[in-house]
Amino acid sequence: MDSCPGEEGQSQRGSALIDPEKVAVVGGGSWGTAFANTLALKGLKVILWCRRQDLADSISNDHLNSDYLPGTFLSPRLRATSDLQEALEEASVAVMAVPSQGFREVVRDVGSLISEAVPIVSLAKGLEQETLFRMSEVAVQEVPSAEGRVASLSGPNLAKEIAEGYPAAAVIASSQSSVSDHLQELFMSPTFRTYANDDIIGVEFAGVVKNVIAIATGIGEGLGFGDNTRAMVITRGLSEMTRLGVSLGADPLTFSGLAGVGDLICTCMSTLSRNHHVGLELGKGRPIDEILDGMSQVAEGVRSSKAVKMLADRQGVEMPIANGVYQVIHEAQPVSEMVSELLRTIRPRERDDF
Question: Of all helices (H) and strands (E), which one includes residue 85?
Answer without folding.
Answer: helix 84-88
